[in-house]
Specification:
The protein has 17 helices and 13 strands. The chain has 450 residues and is of the alpha/beta class. This is Sugar ABC transporter substrate-binding protein.
């Protein structure tokens, strides 16, 4: 979700920002090799304003070049890591870096416009590839060919306040697992009074549509059919999402009277200790503590209620179609060093992160499986400085859920669904059937135009 920060890059200390065109970038006709040295341009270097992240990134690049003296890495930075306003223009103009950052939702588009190099013949040289979670690898796989390498992956869950759970007579070690349980818990928390809200949700700036999508996935539904041509929101699953929100808002009065909320509103409520639950990814927790006044001890995370599915986000790197074989091999080695070695590198050096006061021990991003995941989790646990037991339910339950990325044309669709969600939360007599029918028709029109 571009406008809210869900589609963001979580790094060892902060948020990675990047992407500027440099006069030194290799052009389509540049082999990137000279005097036995292979030169690659890469992006998503943290900006100079993020001094610690920038220093770590530069340290890691220098260490890589020391181990690979035949490779020269030229990093580019700007903000944000991938600006939608310039991304397509760079692709079309042949000005993309040799190794460039993408959100999961951009992968198919880059392939469709024929700007990505096919990495399939080189995968045997990427030692970490087989240890990356398959559902993340599949995002960059099109028609059996691999066009990108995941770097992070994270999913939506239920953030809740353990202190309010205890005060309301709820067990903070047994968070709600179904939407009925969410509703019941929200009602008890709201009954504490003094402005306390049981459950909050977004309903403006496309964020309501984004959360409707996450909640629909949790019910086992989908926004768009598998053929990508028709909306699938006017369904029992879609109706269940809206009926639940309507019941909490108007029957139980557990969502408060103030609506048309966006992410900052809800984070402020949670950080102030006046909110019981809301949906978010794990990267919200440090924000709630550092910027909103929350406490790591009070904040906990559970998997998405419903038990069916969850919305995932993440990012990775793709390679420019003009790259030479030598540049592709060099870029894969760089990714292995920087991001894909469990417990090490820019994202995995947890001891370094802890030393400089960054939170260590959050359940995501979690990229690996098997032995590689075990190594990474041991390193994270050894350096942990947050209450990892608060996230155990999320760890235990999330891997059982169906992982789904955002729908095609997400922002346009979210704009439609924003109106649907906001109507339910602001109008007691909202006609849910009519709202779903209208939303379905508008989404069909968006898909038809594409």
């Amino acid at each position: 979700m571009t406008t809210t920060g869900f589609r963001r890059t979580v790094v060892a200390i902060g948020v990675c920002a990047s992407l500027a065109v440099s006069a030194t970038a290799c052009g389509p006709g540049d082999s990137g090799s000279a005097n036995g040295t292979t030169r690659i341009t890469v992006n998503c270097e943290p900006p100079r304003s993020a001094r610690l992240d920038r220093r770590f990134f530069e340290e890691d690049v220098a260490a890589f070049e020391e181990h690979h003296p035949d490779i020269d890495v030229v990093a580019h930075d700007a903000f944000p890591c991938q600006d939608p306003k310039t991304f397509d223009a760079k692709l079309a103009g042949g000005r993309m870096e040799d190794v460039f950052y993408t959100y999961f939702t951009d992968a198919r588009h880059v392939v469709d416009v024929h700007q990505a190099a096919d990495l399939t013949p080189y995968l045997k040289e990427l030692k970490s590839y087989g240890s990356i979670q398959k559902q993340l690898r599949d995002i960059y796989t099109v028609d059996g060919k691999v066009y990108g390498i995941p770097r992070t992956g994270y999913s939506m869950g239920l953030i809740y306040n353990r202190a309010l759970f205890r005060e309301a007579g709820l067990d903070p070690d047994r968070p709600p697992a179904t939407w009925d349980e969410v509703r019941a818990a929200a009602k008890r928390i709201a009954a504490l009074g003094d402005g306390t809200v049981g459950y909050a949700d977004y309903s403006a700036q496309n964020q309501g549509g984004w959360h409707f999508t996450a909640e629909l996935y949790s019910q086992g539904g989908d926004v768009v059919g598998t053929d990508g041509k028709k909306a699938t929101v006017d369904t029992p699953e879609g109706r269940a999402v809206l009926e639940n929100l309507h019941a909490m808002r108007w029957t139980d009065d557990s969502m408060g009277s103030k609506q048309l909320l966006v992410i900052n509103d809800v984070q402020q409520m949670m950080g102030s200790g006046k909110l019981g639950m809301y949906l978010a990814a794990p990267d919200n927790i440090p924000i709630l503590v550092k910027e909103k006044g929350g406490s790591y001890q009070d904040l906990a995370l559970a998997p998405m209620p419903g038990g069916e599915g969850t919305l995932i986000g993440g990012d990775g790197y793709m390679f420019d179609k003009h790259d030479t074989p030598a540049q592709i091999r060099a870029g894969l080695k760089w990714l292995d060093h920087m991001f894909l070695t469990p417990g090490k590198g820019f994202l995995g050096d947890y001891a370094r992160a802890r030393k400089h006061g960054a939170p260590v021990g959050l359940p995501e991003p979690r990229l690996f499986t098997g032995a590689a995941d075990a190594v990474d989790q041991r390193a994270k646990k050894a350096a942990a400085n947050v209450p990892v037991h608060n996230y155990q339910a999320f760890l235990d339950g999330s891997h059982k859920l169906r992982m789904k990325i955002e729908p095609p044309h997400a922002q346009q669709i979210y704009s439609v669904l924003d109106g649907t969600v906001s109507a339910v939360l602001t109008k007691k007599d909202a006609d849910i059937d009519r709202l779903l029918q209208e939303a379905s028709g508008k989404i069909d029109s968006i898909l038809a135009r594409s």
